[in-house]
Amino acid sequence: MRIGIDARFFGPRTGGGGLGRYVSELVNNLQKIDHENEYVIFLKKENFHEFVVTGANFSKKMVDVPWYSLAEQTVMPREIAHAKVNFMHYSHWNVPVLSRVPFIVTIHDLILLDDPSSARATTRGPLVHGIKQLGHRLVLEKAIHGSRHIITVSEASRRSILGHFRVKPNKVSVIHNGVNAPLEGRGVSLRDLGVVEPFILYVGNMYPHKNLDTLLDAFAGAHARHPGIQLVMAGKFDEFGKKLEGRALEYGFGSGEVRFLNLPTDEELGALYRHAALLAYPSRIEGFGIPPVEALLAGTKVMASNASSMPEVLGDYVRYVDPDDTDDMAKVMLDAVERPEKWAGLKEKGADFAKRYSWEKAARQTLEIYLLYGQRRI
């Protein structure tokens, strides 16, 4: 077979957080395990050189069009047709609706349908935002109903897909993400990053469904009782991050109390995980949630919301909180700093538990989907 993969999200610095990591790890591990099928990897200009071809059956093609754009819908079908692939794997729901090439799609989550606040959140004007919402629904319908098969990353996301769309249950397969152990980060200076211990860490983007306003409110309560703690927000510092920074300033917090780190390197993330008093992950909705699993692998204490996929992915090795309960969040933060013995025994067991999430395993399961649904209609 000749397989095309839309890898324009390749790499967390280009594709953003979990999605960029998913694409890069999937493609790199497929290159390690599959030496029979041919692959064409579609990339943007900014990440074209990040993917290194090592197998004779792999090639890459630059299609430098933005995702969620008109060019995606007009240019991508032509480029895919020229590549003469048997089928495509789209790593996200943004499929080109005019392409006639059969496809498989990964739907990581349906946050824009499940969380109204995320659907309303925008940096665009009302008219443009309305048009984009209409386009999102049209393309998502094509992704769901036009695909040969759907991959998703948790049972929680599978339930969401089946709840929103009339598709047969056997059309949707769960393949959990893999997770790599964070780097040691021994050469990283926390002082140079403006980070002081003890600190509470958040890793990820700053979209509304991440519930970071509530985390900030909870931190304010914890800080009032333990003024020496710091909150570190590590991720893409975009318009949503700027709004969150404005809220922190309303509390009177400067960078000494609430520190924003824009796109930290893997080495910096490793150092942050290993020195954090707690990884806080209060998200209301998650397809999978890579950062808390990375934290478990680093031996870091974790607080997560009891919503969505979190209990499924993290098991019994974290402290769960209601995503609306700021008092409970503040208590867990203080426990992590002042009473770490409450996590006795969890660190080692949590690290062993997290090792079950392997990118090679995810790639092998994805290859099985290719072989089953790639050549013929099921």
Strands, count: 13
Strand content: 15-25%
Q: Give me the Rg, rounded.
A: 21 Å
Helix content: 40-55%
Instruction: Give the strand line-up of the largest sheet.
Output: 3-2-1-4-5-6-7
Instruction: Outline the low-pLDDT stretches.
Output: none
Contiguous helical run count: 14
Describe the structure.
- This protein is of the alpha/beta class and 378 residues long.
- 43% of the residues lie in helices and 15% in strands.
- The protein has 14 helices and 13 strands.
- The protein has helices at residues 12-33, 70-83, 111-114, 116-120, 126-146, 155-164, 212-225, 239-250, 266-275, 290-297, 310-314, 326-338, 346-354, 359-373; strands at residues 2-6, 38-43, 58-62, 87-90, 103-106, 149-152, 172-174, 199-203, 230-235, 258-262, 278-281, 302-305, 319-321.
- The strands form two sheets. Strands 3-2-1-4-5-6-7 form a seven-stranded parallel beta sheet, with helices on both faces.
- Helix 1 (12-33) crosses helix 14 (359-373) and helix 10 (290-297) packs across helix 13.
- The longest helix is centred in the N-terminal third of the chain and has 22 residues, at 12-33.
- The chain is globular.
- The protein starts with a strand and ends in a 5-residue tail after the last helix.
- The mean pLDDT is 92.
